[in-house]
Task: inverse folding
DNA sequence: GTGAAAGCGCTAACAT
DNA sequence: ATGTTAGCGCTTTCAC
């Protein structure tokens, strides 16, 4: 593609025999400009399809009105929701969005930070990769007070920057409480890997709900699904079904595991939710299409994106540097579905799981 | 956030008492530079965390090494795959990706084009909104030879720009042929809305496969699901099941419809795929989590993104303007699943559905 | 091998 | 109301 020279303010100025600054003023609707010149300028600009050059503006103003986003994977229901939320808010505020995916690799994450800083993004929104345990590449951005940063979902333990996270503990508590309300006597938990904070929080929520109802969480009703696959969910649920105390309710760490559990339940000839009620903490929209009876706690991806974006816009526009931001904790929403998918829409209830 | 002045080449030059141009040369590994100065410059640059300013470079070089992407919705399995594919290739080639979503609105699409052109993206990748029937806002970009454009998925009928589309006809043909091979005698089609090209192509593929097998497509086995919801799929499948000729195979326009159909089949007490085999043309990854027995024709989202990106990079870098690009047609892939989800992974076969 | 100067497109301060 | 000028950060001639 041969390089195209586009129309500039100077071209317009020459055509009309006036100064570039006058053209600039006319174009930006400055008050101290005669209507005639303004109209003439507008006419020429239109005739030649003048497009203002944001690059020149960025260089002059030292701001790009561009936000950088680093995300582990784009192809993921939760993350794509986050992106969408960010894009929505950014767009509404006249900001553009530059996206990099780290592919859960620290190396790529570091490279992405560098790329975006070179591009002079006005702010950086980041969800760290699973590999990331050390945050200097973000925390020690050039000059130590570089670009404003907002973390979401996977956040460093000690950072002064804003953080947006989901209230997993509360969500899990509500989900378990819901099973209790439904009359479940023996509620099992198919937990996620112990090393992940979210798994631990969800387990805690489960325990808390039971204790609040005056019950003791039983060790034999808690199974860890380290790999987090449908297969493991199936296997662990089978174990549960072969124990003495058969659970009549299951809270699963996520919907993938929940799906495996449901397969095991059905294979046993039991009915959902009549015999065993199931509820899954969900990253995906799957629940919508899954078996009826699968209620779920949904991660508020879009809302998280919106909040993160709003947060960084405030950060960018705040004049005095803020010393420390306390984390913003978003509630998950508990979606309760009835047992007939045909009448599903009428039966969906959304509870606000947070406080 | 108070505006931060970052380190420039001039700062380094001053510190060392040399000319900015020398610093520039040292930094960019120019040959005609003494090793001592180079080392000195590098040292200072490192000490002060110098970050080159891409904005200044863009202004000078008249290229941003940035690509613009306009997409109807980010939260969509197919589209998020496309984005991911584009990001991957762009990144690998040193390009950044600026994303706007149109939300299926022509108005927002027009605004997005304008935004991206102002940002001086080097190229524009676009999937038009459902509302878009007139393409001047893209085709007549400033100066008529403006930014390189590549269309994908939803493309204008007559554009000289590159277009990447999916071979729906071939995919549908393969899917239907697969049902025939499986021994299905009466294969129904749950079609999409007639006004969409993809629906028409899939219907044609279905017809073609039957004809190739020496069968006549029967009108009573074709049902249009205008709304494309699970509910409609359920209703239309019920109609089919209550007709004289009960189908033993169903090719559904997409997986949402397929899901409804499967619910209807199961409610009737029939088994999938033993009694009725089902296959859906899929935009989503749902099939992975759906009932066993649901084979699907998957849209190659990531591949489409990669191709689109590669295509625009070539376009950008080609010196002589190309007169007309013929469409690039990607095959969909037919994924055949067995009936036991537990053994699923072993039984998945992927056939290349294109020619 | 290095320096000086021009220029990419734009705007804001300072004239007039 | 309009023109002049300088400068944002960088590279790239053209001198020396």
Result:
């Amino acid at each position: 593609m041969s390089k195209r020279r586009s129309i500039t303010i100077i071209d317009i100025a020459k055509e009309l025999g006036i100064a570039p600054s006058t053209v600039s003023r006319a174009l930006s609707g400055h008050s101290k400009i005669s209507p005639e010149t303004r109209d003439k300028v507008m006419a020429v600009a239109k005739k030649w399809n003048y497009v203002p050059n944001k690059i020149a503006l960025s260089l002059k103003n030292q701001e790009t009105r561009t936000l950088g986003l680093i995300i582990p994977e784009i192809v993921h229901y939760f993350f794509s929701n986050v992106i969408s939320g960010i894009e929505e808010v950014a767009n509404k505020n006249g900001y553009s969005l530059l996206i990099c995916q780290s592919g859960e690799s620290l190396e790529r994450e570091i490279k992405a930070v560098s790329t975006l800083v070179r591009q002079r993004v006005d702010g950086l929104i980041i969800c760290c990769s699973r590999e990331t345990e050390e945050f200097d590449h973000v925390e020690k951005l050039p000059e130590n007070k570089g670009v404003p940063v907002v973390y979401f979902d996977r956040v460093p333990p000690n950072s002064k920057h804003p953080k947006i996270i989901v209230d997993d503990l509360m969500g899990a508590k509500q989900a378990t409480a819901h099973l209790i309300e439904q009359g479940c006597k023996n509620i099992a938990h198919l937990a996620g890997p112990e090393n992940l904070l979210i798994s631990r929080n969800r387990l805690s929520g489960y325990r808390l709900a039971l204790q609040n109802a005056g019950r003791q969480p039983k060790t034999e009703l808690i199974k860890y699904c380290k790999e987090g696959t449908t297969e493991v969910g199936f296997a662990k649920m089978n174990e549960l079904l072969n124990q003495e105390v058969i659970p009549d309710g299951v809270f699963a760490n996520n919907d993938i595991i929940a799906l495996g559990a449901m397969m095991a339940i059905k294979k046993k000839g039991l009915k959902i939710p009549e015999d065993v009620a199931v509820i899954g903490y969900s990253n995906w929209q799957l629940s919508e299409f899954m078996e009826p009876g699968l209620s779920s706690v949904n991660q508020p991806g879009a809302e998280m994106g919106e909040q993160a974006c709003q947060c960084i816009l405030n950060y960018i526009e705040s004049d005095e540097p803020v010393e420390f931001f306390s984390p913003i904790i978003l509630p998950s929403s508990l979606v309760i579905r009835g047992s007939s998918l045909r009448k599903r829409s009428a039966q969906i209830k959304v509870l606000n799981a947070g406080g």
